[in-house]
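Q: My labmate handed me this sequence with no annotations at all. I'd like to see what the chain might look like in three dimensions before we decide whether it's worth expressing. Could you predict it?
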Amino acid sequence: MTNLAYKTEHTFNWKEESASAALQSLRPLPRISIQVFCETAPVAEAIEKAGADRRMAKTHVKMHMGGISAAIEYYQSAATPNLIILESRTEPGELIDSLNQLAEVCDAGTKVVVIGHYNDVWLYRELIRTGISEYVVAPVSMPDIVGVIAGIFTDPSAGPIGKALAFVGGKGGVGSSTLAHNAGWAMSKLFESEVMVVDLDLPFGTANINFDQDPPQGIAEAVFAPERLDEVYLDRLLAQCAEGLSLLAAPSTLDRVYDFDAEAFVHIIDTAQRTAPVVVLDVPHLWTSWTKTTLARADDIVLTVTPELANLRNAKNLIDTLRKLRPNDDPPRLIINQTNVPKRPEIGVDDFADALGLVPLAVIPFEPQLFGKAANSGRMLGETDANHPIVQAINDMAHVLTGRREIRQKKKIGLGALFGRLGRRK
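A: Here is what I predict for the chain of 426 residues:
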């Protein structure tokens, strides 16, 4: 059975930490093909859930039922993929015999993971000795599957990747970009950590204005010449805004159109994550293939809204869609911005949050003097008035988004008829 894969030396102990925390620590998997042969519905369901996880977005997973016997028959006339996952309920001796038959039709570079139903130390050692990459005892969960595959196909010697935080607005003009830039600045100052702000609004981005920068190059050079992009080239495109804070600026010009495919920014963001511990993505209020992909693959999403009905509808649509795109991740973080505008009718903060089923990350009151002064001088809010309560709220956001603090829970109140109003307006 020497033509089956060697065992990886680095596996994940999922019992030592929570499933969600373990998933967050994993690198995205490379482009590999995976074929699965299951015998039971629970294992098939766990693998289907794993295949939908954003960390496996680049992989191609194909499911079969029938176990090892089906795999042996299938590969009589088909090439084997990068990874085969097999479930078997057979007893240890018969399982070894079946895998020896599989070895005769298995390509040399293919790795094999076996999901068995016998917790047998001798069986585990024998399988590893004969070249199986990993043996997992059922029942298995979605994190088990993702972790095992990551342990085989990701380089354990590679450094950690940065956390990608995607900020997006429920509507244009709600202040998402301003809060993204100030949150990035706060993280770099509070934690003395390297932070990269990436302005993805190429035609109308404001990060260069907010940071008082006029870089000659930026994200346009990266997205229009992806073959040149690596860590060294990315570093040349960055503008240094402050100690520990760099900016990949948007050109903010209309001399060309900016139409991109779904994967246009994936390589840029992956490269940025290898460069900085925190990457703040300023995502414009658009719904295109590339914004959808960017939000689907981010580590955390921050949704900024103002307390009015159109924002509530848009926020509900975004949250519901992102739950389907990211079934194994938490929902977006919610910021309710520009509250208490004089003479403007508003939806109450508690009603708004209750309608979405979320506890707000922050509630930011309308404060035109502070925001206007900072914007017109090209300075951050913390540079304008470090002791202002809004600055303290942004500092709290920075703690939560970097995992240093939890959101303080608030008691929810009744929803009322908000979605009834939405339905009548259609």
